[in-house]
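User: Can you predict the 3D structure of Sugar fermentation stimulation protein homolog? Sequence below.
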Amino acid sequence: MRFQTELIPATLLRRYKRFLADIRLPDGREVTAHCPNPGSMMGLSKPGTRVWVEPNDDPKKKLKYGLRIVELAGAMVVVDTGVANKVVGETLRAGLIPDLIGVVHAEVKYGVNSRADFMVVQNQNRIWIEVKSVTLSRDAGLAEFPDAKTARGAKHLGELAARVAEGDRAVMLYLVSRDDCNRFAPASDIDPAYAKAEAEARAAGVDIRVHSVTITPEQVRFDTGGFA
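Assistant: Sure. Here are the predicted structure tokens for Sugar fermentation stimulation protein homolog:
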């Protein structure tokens, strides 16, 4: 996935109210950017951190910059959670995941007031796919999810398990949106209920898989290999 507009570097001043971030641009101007991340962004919002933002000239948008990447020492982290769905969507439609090739539908209603990120129809069989963007890493090389309690995330796992019980396939796809990790685990100390729901979903037959990405200020590319 390529960003629509060339990203520019900036300095993070503060992140607040979940979806707002004050930044300093290279010319010294201080502006407020949209921060499209509902999580805690644990370890990613320290004032003075170098970030990459995407400018826009859309008159309908009040904020003219969107926070896309946080740059740490030795790591690039995509903090725009919407990027994960775009990357996975492009990858599915390009047929780059062999066992998930089929007709791809996005935002499909299922379960109880839920929408699956994707449903792939494969030889009249349905594959339900939820995507989670993983940005937390507290130990070197280890990616963790979630970075805050998420009842909604646990609900999605239950919905996927219910699809399997009805004879469909279901996939929970964790996209590790940082380039310094090669292992993954649920953050059970942050949200024990989510970790329990994931274990139950796995036992029920939900396919739990983890993929990483290659990140540059120009694009985010899906790595098909995956890791544990």
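The mean pLDDT is 96. The chain has two domains: 8-78, 81-222.
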